[in-house]
Amino acid sequence: MRIIPILVMVSCFAWPDPAIAEKADYVESAIACAKAGDKEGALLQYSKAIQNNPHDAVAFIDRAILRFNTGDHNGAFVDINFALKLNMIDYNALRTRADFKAECGDTTGALRDYSEALKWNNKDSLAYNNRGTARLELKKTKEALADFEKAVAVDPNNLLARFNRLCLIPNKIEARSEYEKLNKLSIRDAASHLSMANAHYHFGYTDKALDELSKAIQLDNAYAHAYYNRAVIREEQGNKTGSLADYNKAIEIDSTNPRAYYNRSLLRESMNDREGAMKDLNRALEINPHLKTRENRAKPLELMLS
Q: Do 107 and 57 belong together in one domain?
């Protein structure tokens, strides 16, 4: 799983220019709207900020992220590409576009953008982590591990990278030691609970994994990836009803995740809902045609990394 960057928080201290102050008000209003769940209001405020300053690359990046997260992928790419026209070496814009491409199934394109972003900022821990997940998607395990290790070296506090690295450490003793260290951490955010769930699952502790995912959902009841991962584990445990409910919720929150549709299609097939299964499969392939060539047999897709 790949985390699309959160909206950039803008700090305001003194705004001597009225035009700059007005722009700051729009951005602050957009951030406030987004936090309150008013995505339409946030989009409107970002649009006003851009009208006020058509060369504000940060506002374009923020609006792109918001558009992507609301399912407007075309609008998101238009915004992020325009931000790169304003500044072709903006590593934040490059990383963000890479995230978009990765989520849309263009893993090769994502790798190019991540690598380009890292040329301009080789201290971007998030870019290393996200490139690692993209490489893992292409079964490039050694390269993925190298990226996760680089992400941790750049920022030891990057828990997402530490959790992702844990699942690839070849030395079992080292992996177990790192697992015990991570298991003692006091986790307070939903993304880290999801990552800890993946770590538990990696070591075979499925009940602990489910507990972590439930904690993630309690902290963020709109966390689509947590519902998706819980659905995968519940299905493995034979809880088809619970799994279906979680896939339904994941898709309700994020209607653009092909993995959720693909797995739900297999689950519906096993529950004799063939019409629903075919509808889901077609939707999954519509969003990401690469699934058709990547999957050689009918099996649920794995958990999503952070």
A: no
Domain identity same for 42 and 83? yes
Q: 232: closest CA among 133, 305, 136, 302?
A: 302
Q: Are 224 and 253 in contact (CB under 8 A)?
A: yes
Mean pLDDT per block of 10 residues along the chain (306 residues) reads: 38 41 69 80 88 89 88 91 92 94 88 96 95 90 95 92 89 92 87 90 93 94 92 95 96 88 94 95 86 56 62
Question: Ramachandran region of residue 68, left (φ > 0), alpha (ψ -120 to 50) or beta?
Answer: alpha
Which structure tokens are listed for 180?
Answer: 């015990």
Shared domain for 78 and 121, answered yes or no, is no
Q: How many domains does the chain have?
A: 2
> Count of CB atoms within 10 A of residue 177's CB?
12
For the chain, the three-class secondary structure string (H helix, E strand, C coil) is CCCCCCCCCCCCCCCCCHHHHHHHHHHHHHHHHHHCCCHHHHHHHHHHHHHHCCCCHHHHHHHHHHHHHCCCHHHHHHHHHHHHHHCCCCHHHHHHHHHHHHHCCCHHHHHHHHHHHHHHCCCCHHHHHHHHHHHHHCCCHHHHHHHHHHHHHHCCCCHHHHHHHHCCCCCHHHHHHHHHHHHCCCCCCHHHHHHHHHHHHHCCCHHHHHHHHHHHHHHCCCCHHHHHHHHHHHHHCCCHHHHHHHHHHHHHHCCCCHHHHHHHHHHHHHCCCHHHHHHHHHHHHHHCCHHHHHCCCCCCCCCCCC
